[in-house]
Specification:
alpha+beta, globular
Length: 147
């Protein structure tokens, strides 16, 4: 997707590895999977795609996965503020009010939330330290994979 590629090239780094997700959002800020599929198919809207950066795994050859989350997050946020619109840090809400945050996410029609233990190192794939809590009413939860 051109905006993501352009923003990656604009970063003042030799190398970088991000954990993130390419998205298209509707005007009220909710991700729109159908618009993303259309953009990825090359039919329309490729300029609307951007990458939400969740975490920073490597920077200029340095493996950051064992660094504390706060350091990775601060470095990611500082780095992405130097990028174009194709890269944006994901929103982060701290604290222990996970149930309240989840209810608000559901009311907004979001897919859900990711609950992370900030005191744990980064791990790829599914693990008990990072849990995705899905909104059962979100379109993504009921979407059928088309073959």
């Amino acid at each position: 997707m051109p905006p993501i590629v352009e923003a990656m090239h604009a970063l003042p780094v030799k190398s970088v590895t991000l954990d993130g997700e390419g998205v298209v959002v509707e005007p009220r800020g909710v991700t729109d999977f159908n618009r993303l599929r259309t953009a990825l198919a090359g039919r329309d809207g490729a300029r609307a795609v951007f990458l939400y950066g969740f975490d920073l795994l490597e920077l200029d050859g340095h493996d950051l996965r064992r660094e504390p989350w706060e350091i990775r997050r601060a470095t990611l946020t500082g780095l992405l503020c130097k990028a174009g619109e194709g890269l944006r840090p994901s929103e982060h809400l701290g604290g222990t009010a996970g149930a309240t945050i989840f209810r608000h996410a559901c009311a907004l029609g979001l897919e859900g939330i990711i609950a992370k233990r900030r005191d744990r190192p980064y791990q790829s794939g599914r693990c008990s330290d990072w849990v995705k809590v899905k909104n059962p009413d979100a379109p993504a939860a009921t979407r059928v994979i088309e073959l």
